[in-house]
Amino acid sequence: MSHGVGWMPPCNPLLYGWRLNVPLWEYLLYWVLLALAIRVAHSVVRAWATTRGDYPDETPENKPRNFLIGFWWCLNGFNEYKEHSDLWIPTAIGFLELAVFPVLLSIQDYAVIGAWIGIKTAGSWMGYSRSRTSFNRFLLFTAITVLVACALLLPFVDRIKIRLGENMRRVVTGSVAAISTIGSVVALVYGLLGYGPGPRWLWLLIAYAALAFGSVVSWLEERSRVKKFEPFASAFKASVNQRCDRIMLDWRKLATDFENAAKEPGEPHNLADPLHPHWVSSSWRVWPYRVGLLQGSTLDLYGDLTRLSIPISIYNVRTTLDELLDALSKAREELKKSVTHWPSLLSFSL
Questions:
Q1: Measured between alpha carbons, how far is 57 from 65 in angstroms, rounded to an integer?
Q2: Burial label, 308 (beta-carbon count in 10 A; 0-12, 13-18, 19+)
Q3: Is 270 strand, coil or helix?
Q4: What is the pTM of this model?
Q5: Number of C-beta neighbours around residue 128 at 10 A
Q6: Which residues contact 112 (CB under 8 A, 6 or more apart)?
Q7: Contacts of 41 (CB under 8 A, 6+ apart)
Q8: Do 91 and 31 meet the contact criterion of CB atoms below 8 Å apart?
Q9: Fewer CB within 10 Å, N- or C-terminus of the chain?
């Protein structure tokens, strides 16, 4: 595989910045076992709370008579009381978290983890407002899931290393963004539930300020990553512009040589339909080779112009030479006026 000017390795670390050092089935087995272990531990802790009636919508009918019944209700997940029937959905979510968290930790994308925890917290705050124990249990097992992913599963994920300076900067900015997101969630919960000292509006203001700060930090980091590739993108754009000029000159020279050359019986008088495939299969002296070579170069150029989001007015086998040169000329002018489309360049390869 060859690479064009300005090519860079794949820039999406979530897809290309990690790899497993164990077979996938083995990693999957660890996911299942750890998710089941966390469910058992969660059922034990929740059973202690349910036997004391410490859960939302507690009634004498749905309160377990002893610890074993409460443990079975929580572990089973399917029973007649909806307060104790989670249908194993939290375990499925935990399974996915155990699968994804090690990858996010390995590529140091902590902000995504923080944002996900924030979404989970915000979506359940009404239930937590009626049971402080439920909220503390949520925090406890969220922390356990992150620690398990870090301590037990992270060693199975290898990060494709990048430069140390970039690595450290991403660690710092990712950590700041994650801490800001988590702080925003905590402040939002305190404000909505009224647990914190002071008025609610103050906690809500703190939550929005922390969220805005984390968002700005993440945006600045992403902006610096994009700016780092600007020289490569500019070089690629200049290369495409030069190739466009050269191919236009080569087509004009080939057309002149063809018109001035001695003609064999059946040969056209000019270079008609220069992109038609019949040129490559014809037996007219050297013309099949020269035309085919320029057809391939023109096709590659059209592909690169498309990657730069430059519109191509015409391209088909019946295109005349004048139409082809006019289309290339217009594309060259658009290329000079355009702003390089960075995302397409970052994944550019031939």
A1: 16
A2: buried
A3: coil
A4: 0.46
A5: 21
A6: 104
A7: 141, 144
A8: no
A9: N
Amino acid at 332: R
- Tokens encoding 63: 């309160």
Give me the half-sphere count of Cα atoms (radius 13 Å) on the Cβ side of residue 196: 17
pLDDT of residue 190: 66
Query: Which residue in 322, 307, 144, 157 sits closest to 240, CA to CA?
Result: 307
Q: Contact at 8 Å (CB) between 177 and 218?
A: yes
CA 175 to chain centroid, in Å, comes to 19
> Measured on CA atoms in the order 65, 71, 77, 83, is the torsion positive or negative?
positive
Backbone phi and psi for residue 20, each to the nearest 5 degrees, phi listed first: -80, 140
Q: Rounded to an integer, what distance in angstroms lies between the CA atom of residue 337 and that of residue 220? A: 27
Q: Name residues of the chain where pLDDT drops below 70.
A: 1-16, 56, 123-131, 160-176, 190-198, 229, 263, 265-267, 280-286, 313-315, 338-350
Cα separation values, 176 from 114, 182, 204, Å: 10, 10, 20
pLDDT of residue 192: 67
Q: Are the CB atoms for 180 and 210 separated by under 8 Å?
A: yes
Classify the C-alpha dihedral 144-146-149-155 as positive or negative. negative
Torsion sign (Cα): 254, 256, 261, 266: positive
Give, rounded to a whole angstrom, the gap between the first and last alpha carbons of the chain: 7
